[in-house]
Structures are given as structure tokens and as C-alpha cells.
# Entry
Amino acid sequence: MLPVRGRNGRAARRARILGTRTAWTPVGDGEFFCPGCGGDRNYQRLTGRRRFTLLGVPLVPRGVTGPVVECAACAHHYGADVLDHPTTGRFSAMLRDAVHTVALAVLAAGGACARTSLEAAVITVRAAGFPDCTEEQLGALVQALAADDGRIFDHPSGASLAIELHEALDPLAPHLAPAGREAVLLQGARIALADGPYTPAERDVLATVGAALTLCSTDVTRLLAAARTPS
# Structure
């Protein structure tokens, strides 16, 4: 091999003589969605201590670094905020529960559960991940909501219903693409339309759904109108 010469050669020699080394210590583990692998993987959460090295020998402490998240499969390091992204399994559960909550809210806002609305809601909820859902189950849940101190029908503002919708949709919205957020709203709109035009209460609920999904009011109006057009 030819000797390394010039400025690059001197830099390379210095790098071999002086450098830094990080010693990593595991402080936790779990499962996460790895952006590099594109799927759910195990991880270790690491903190590190950096030291200057002379001829490869650690000498002077240079402070701490991290924490970082190391994928057990690809060994890549990521910032701790990568754990904010739900795993595939967790995301599926969040979406399933959100659709179920939207369906119940729309049915409750309608006042009386018409059979056509229940049928539409059951189809939607089953497709979201509750294959054993029945009309009887949804009807019973809506009646239970209505009987729970009258919190659905005796509160025109729908404050309790709005809280439940935000609790289900707020954590999900940042992880849904715009088309996905619109799809959730359209599913609720089609349930509302199954027994006739929107009622004022159904419009209020769907507006709340849109707001929780971070859809602007213009988009909500557009989508509610589009839902009336048979696909």
C-alpha cells in the first residue's frame, strides 16, 4: 500500500493517535417501531460516557452523551423521541378504538338508534378490528351512555362526548396521513347518513371529530358534503 501523504495523511495519523470513545450503558429496553427496519423491533435505551483516547487508550473523561435508542436488529442509534412513534400493534389498537368511539358518538348523537345506522356502524367497527361486534352490542352501549346520568342527551354542549372523542383521537392524529384522518371522519359521516340527513347533533359530533383529527373546518364541511355522494 502506498503511504498516505499530505494534509489528509497528517489528519489520519492524528486520528489514530488522538480520538474519543463512548462507553454505552443499557438503562432500559422494550419494543419500538424502527425507522430503519420499517417495522417493530426490540430496542435498548443507552446512556454513554465519552473519553479522550491516546493511542486507543481511554484517558480523560469528556462528559456524558445520550440517551439513545439502539435497535436490536440493525444496531442503528436513534434519538429518544423515536419512542414517541407507536409500534404497529399499538397503532392498530389506537385506530380500532378511535373508529369504535366515533361510531358510538355518532349513534348517541342521533338519539334513537335506527337499524340502518346500527348496520352501518357494525360494518365500520368490524372492519376496524372488532370482528365480533354486533348491532345488539352497539345498541346496548349507546343506551348505557344515555342512561349514565343523562350525560349524552341532557348535555346539549356534548362536553362529555367531546372529551371522549379527543381522548381517542388526539393521540392518533399525529400518526395518520391526511387521507387517513379524512377516512375516519368519512366513516362517521356515513353512519350518520345511514338513516337520513345529518341532524344538528350529528353535525356537532362530526365537527368535533374533525377538530380532534386536526382537520380544518373547510375540509370538514367538504367531507361531510362528499359523504352524501354515493361512492
Q: What stands out?
A: Confidence is low (pLDDT under 50) at residues 1-6, 151-157. Helices lie at 6-17, 88-109, 115-128, 135-147, 159-169, 178-193, 200-212, 217-226. The radius of gyration is 27 Å.
